[in-house]
Amino acid sequence: MNSLLKLLSTAIALLSILSFSFLHPTHFLGWKALMSSQQVADLVVRNGVIYTGDDSLPFAESMAVANGRVVRVGNHSYVQELASYGTEVLDLGGKVVVPGFIDSHVHFIPGGLQMMQVDLTGVNKKDEFIRRIKDAAQSTKRGSWILGGGWNNDLWGGDLPAASWIDDFTPYNPVWLSRTDGHMGLANSVALMLCGVTNLTADPSEGTIKRTPDGEPTGLLIESAMSLVMSQIPEDSVDNRREALLRASNLALERGVTTVVDMGRYYSGTSANLSWEDFTDVYQWADSMSKMKVRVCLFFPMETWSRLVHVINKMGYALSEWVYIGGVKAFADGSLGSNSALFYEPYVDDPNNYGQQLIESEALFNMALESDLSGLQIAIHAIGDKANDLILDTYGSVASTNGPRDRRFRIEHAQHLAMGAPHRFGKQWVIASMQPDHLLNDADTARKKLGKDRADNGSYLFRSLLENNALVAFGSDWPVADINPLSGIKTAMRRQPPTWENAWIPSECISLDDAIKAYTISAARASFLDNDLGSLSPGKLADFVILTTHSWEEFAESASASIAATYISGVRAYP
């Protein structure tokens, strides 16, 4: 009789836990972790310094993984209880482990495609720029496009390239070379002629055709003017885009990145359909064929918000443990390097130019209002101080109109902020999605374009945002900057450009703990992924990175380490 009563009480207890979990879905992972704690581990990681990213247990010696998820973290004897015959044991030899890095802002397919084109990243001499195009022309058949990108004129002194630099050796090939920021590009004369861009062509709305003093196009196209050429470039094949995903994924894993937030092939002046084509042709295909190697969270052009709502209603926010739906993205302004970021005061090197607002305020508010009312997360690109205030105002109006909910509004880049803006980020619960490595080139550029006082008082305010309780998520904006979280972490801690002896705005340096959180748990929260990712907590997916360093203290002091191995779901993915 007593055994029957015990059995009945156990059944009632389990039923109550199960029903509670279904009534409160956010607690389901906790229940799963409770059940998983009784499982035999597939993998035990031991003898290391495991930074969990979980404030309830910041560091651990060992970790157990079962069915791709963390089931236990703690000291060796506690974790070893789950080991059995067949459990793989990974001895770290004292190395440091961190959660898998989340890059909060990439253009994944464009980055992979650029790996197959002319790479102008880091070129710091005009002659080298010309040589690379000349070499490409010699190996390209007549009539085919020569495509490339990554150039940054600030690296060779600031002179903007022109079609005349490359026309002599590209007489039979159209050329298009995008600037590193994606807000400006160079076309040769063949491409301009092919696309009908002449001295009679008017500047499109929110775009500029750079011209010589006598009105002839130089070959440089800014913002929406880029579409005059880009719309005529043959579409990348499905096979090339799938190959781009593979190349991008392999590079990400090499750098310790296990999840990316992909803003897609959506730049100012490009078609809103490109991101959707990649969704169906590349991501859904790769997911269905079990070819995904890195987790992705996808954002789509805000003008297509109703289409995204339809997809979510049909498929949900998670297509699998590899492909997640993020939300919608729009542009408020351009970039600093292209003099199209929107500021309250004019550019020092262009006194009549305040930058460009790329969408009319009322149109932006209406799209944001409808997107938010449909439950979508919104991310808006803003670099200049006026653009950031514009978006903070827009977000405040949307929230006031639609009422309270967990929105997690994002501002992508948040590079240059007016006085009081960090406080507004925290007060309005707006996420600052930032890219630390951008400041390595922008330090000199910002002073030239904004003046020292403006540049040094409002640029890359990491610490000010954190001290005002804003959530800061880090990324790379790859291929604008390298996809390399360890470099971004060092930059956020040191803020020292390559040719500088001291930090740029040292008061804005942050700690190792804050920098890693911006690439892990804060990045996960910034995309509603924190139930599954961002920390090595029981119940979460076992994505982690082994570093070469053996000391957390030395890591914090030197801000330097390398990737030894990358694991996804407890399985080694690199090397």
Automatic annotation (TrEMBL):
Segments traversing the membrane: none
SUPFAM superfamilies in UniProt: Composite domain of metallo-dependent hydrolases, Metallo-dependent hydrolases
Entry-linked Pfam families: Amidohydro_3
An example Gene Ontology molecular-function term: hydrolase activity, acting on carbon-nitrogen (but not peptide) bonds
Annotated Gene3D superfamilies: 3.10.310.70, Metal-dependent hydrolases (3.20.20.140), Urease, subunit C, domain 1 (2.30.40.10)
Protein name: Protein LONG AFTER FAR-RED 3
Naturally occurring in which organism (per UniProt): Arachis duranensis (Wild peanut)
Classification lineage: Eukaryota, Viridiplantae, Streptophyta, Embryophyta, Tracheophyta
